[in-house]
Amino acid sequence: MTLVLLLSLAAFITSSITAATGIGGGVVLLALMAQLVPPAILIPLHGAAQLMSNTNRVLVQRKFINWAYIKPFLLGSVVGGALITPLALYMPVPVGQVLLGLFIVLATWKSAWLRLAHWPPAASGGITTGLSLVLGATGPLVMSVLPKSAWERQVVVGTHGMAMVIQHGIKVIAFSSLNVSLLEYWPLLLGIGLATLAGNLMGARLLTRVPEEKFTLILNWLLTALALRLVYQGISALITAGN
22: left (phi > 0), else alpha (psi -120 to 50), else beta? Predict the structure, then answer.
């Protein structure tokens, strides 16, 4: 019961963060869950928790979702999840973390160089989904490829939430096919589900109070902080392996 209460509280706080800024909560929740959950079930349980959190976010922000972007993104995600993951397994995770972190920083501050807003949604979905199953950091990666400058902040958060539902759904299906049973943790998942709904409602209220220009600035710096964390983790792992 203590575990349910602690992780439900963590889910409420982190889903509030994500609903207000678009990203960040998933990374924080993963770090907290790593202290309390057995390593063997950590990633699939976190994927299920994020699926519920983003589903709740989509319910709250459903009228702002850009479905013209999401439909081809979904198709690309299904294909990418099937095709890219086996190829990505050949890349050492620490190297992938460093490259991914640097890519996010570049995409955040110099997106014009990469012309990310011009990437077809199907390509964005395929590439990010395939990489997310291997490298994690799904939220910042997808946020970096969305055409954010063309959308209002509610559209950014709502569409990003729907993209996360797709990717975490694929992740849960993938782990379920590997005989990972999440139903054994139904009390924990129920608590997290209710907590994320409350957190998303709270975060949505905060989102409407943040001016458009401040939202963009906060989002860019949050993306940068998460990307630098990825680079640090990758470099630390490479140094440790070298020793």
Answer: left
